Amino acid sequence: MTKPTAPKKPAATNRKRYSPEYKADALKLAERVGVAKAAAELNVPQAQLYNWRKSAEQKTSSSEREQKLADENARLKRLLAEKEEEVAIIKKAAAYFAKGLK
Asked: What's the whole-model pTM score?
């Protein structure tokens, strides 16, 4: 004789989705009062707050990295324009002195 099986529930039905604003507010609260108290107050697992903090740090670090790359790109473009101008001046000077040798 086999046991009757209970109907299976879809796993995704118990998952809650939180807005980015809620996550940011929760992280601010956790920063002020601590993760444990904030998790208890918000009725959210502590691990969830730690995960939100980790992903927020990754986003800011990637934007900082992008800003550094943009600054470096702008510096290199200025340097390239300066070198191109120097090369143009040297070509004109070479042409001028080459005329004098003929």
From this structure: 0.50
